[in-house]
Amino acid sequence: MRQVVQDLEASRIREVANEGLGREGVLKFWFGESDEVTPAFIREAAIASLQAGETFYAHNLGLPELREALASYTDALHPGRGAAHWQDRLAVTSGGVNGLMLASQALVDAGDEVVVVTPAWPNLVAQPLIMGARVKSVPLKVLGSGPRAGAWALDMDALLAAITPATRMLIVNAPNNPTGWTLTAAEQRAILAHCRRTGTWILADEVYERLYFAADTPNGAASSFLDVAEPEDRVVIAHSFSKSFLMTGWRLGWLVLPAALTAAVGKLIEYNTSCAPVFVQRAASLALQRGAEVTPALVAHLKGCRDTLVPLLRGLPGVTLAEPLGGMYAFFRLDGRTDCLDTAKRLVREAGLGLAPGSAFSPEAAGWLRWCFASRDRERLVQGVQRLRHWIDTQAR
Ligand code: PMP
């Protein structure tokens, strides 16, 4: 076995979830998904496709119907170039995670240097490592005071200093899992200008683009590298149907690429998965066409979840957190508890509360816990906080 594969870490979130196996009544907020089922009209489109006998291989880059729908969707969110512009810049992938891996396969050689902004979803670090890259992490810093105390923020000087002509690729996820940190257009411009000078590719994981609560952008979505980049810039954007369309289990995503890279990614798709399932793509086409029935209500609901959970958490003794601007996670520190893996396991066993340990996302986040607030029933969040409060009180005694 390759050494890098042997060295891959087992998921610490799974380790906590395993603690809950066979335990009744655990309130589970550890995984990054909503407990809401995919809307019926999307499921029905998949069923109709299967009933019609669509059980065959399809084009590597995706069904024309879905690619057209994606081109219109992209143009609506990032207007100015017209839907036709996006047609040859799209690749349909088997989940966001597959799109991100394809980008690493296309761009990263063994021995290359890749910079990742952390804390980050663990896959973003593991994927370049699997390609044999050397990964350099640039940590966000925690604001100690002011109205956003406890928020994770970019240290732009540190990031730009870390990206040199030796850096093949920068991987950045904003809105960020787990911290809820987001990038402004001005920051994206500064990063892009620097990466143009160093010849560094930017792999922007924007799967949470639509799950944005700040209402300071024209389209309600978080600012995207697509809004600041030129078509030929070395920028690849990873997207997913999982979060904005409640389709985690369907395994469908897409990449937005410079046109010159699309055919190469099509070749890689051939050797990875060959294509995404047709019935899934049919359902996704309809999800995009009727997205107005899904995403705005979902975002409003998630905002309500955030606004329920965050003030309650802030009211607990020893808890520090800032309101997340995007994504679906509350990320908080519990004073005096540096071993968050142990804390998360104990919370499962002793409080019936399932959270993800911050150390799963980077060493700097040891002592932090991630709470996915995408809960259909907000009362579950309230109950979860009650359990946490009770547990903290018992510890203090
Ligand atoms: N990027 C980030 C930051 C994520 O949190 C996730 C899902 N947890 C993904 C990508 C991938 O999502 P999927 O493979 O379900 O599309």
Report what the structure shows.
This protein is α/β, with parallel strands linked by helices and 397 residues long. It has two domains: 3-38 and 294-390, Aspartate Aminotransferase, domain 1 (Alpha-Beta Complex), CATH 3.90.1150.10; 40-290, Aspartate Aminotransferase, domain 2. It is 41% helix and 15% strand. It has helices at 3-7, 12-19, 40-51, 64-77, 83-86, 96-107, 123-130, 156-162, 185-198, 259-272, 278-289, 295-314, 340-351, 378-396, and strands spanning 27-28, 90-93, 113-118, 134-139, 141-142, 152-153, 167-173, 201-205, 235-240, 253-256, 319-320, 329-334, 353-354, 356-357, 368-372. The strands form four sheets. Strands 2-10-9-8-7-3-4 form a seven-stranded mixed beta sheet, sandwiched between helices. A four-stranded antiparallel beta sheet has the order 11-12-15-14. The protein has a two-stranded parallel sheet with strand order 1-13. Strand 11 and strand 12 (329-334) form a beta hairpin. The longest helix has 20 residues, at 295-314. The chain is globular, with a radius of gyration of 21 Å. It starts with a helix and ends with a helix. The model has no long low-confidence stretch (mean pLDDT 96). Bound molecules: 4'-deoxy-4'-aminopyridoxal-5'-phosphate. 4'-deoxy-4'-aminopyridoxal-5'-phosphate binds at residues 32, 95-97, 121, 173, 177, 205, 207, 240, 242, 248, 253.
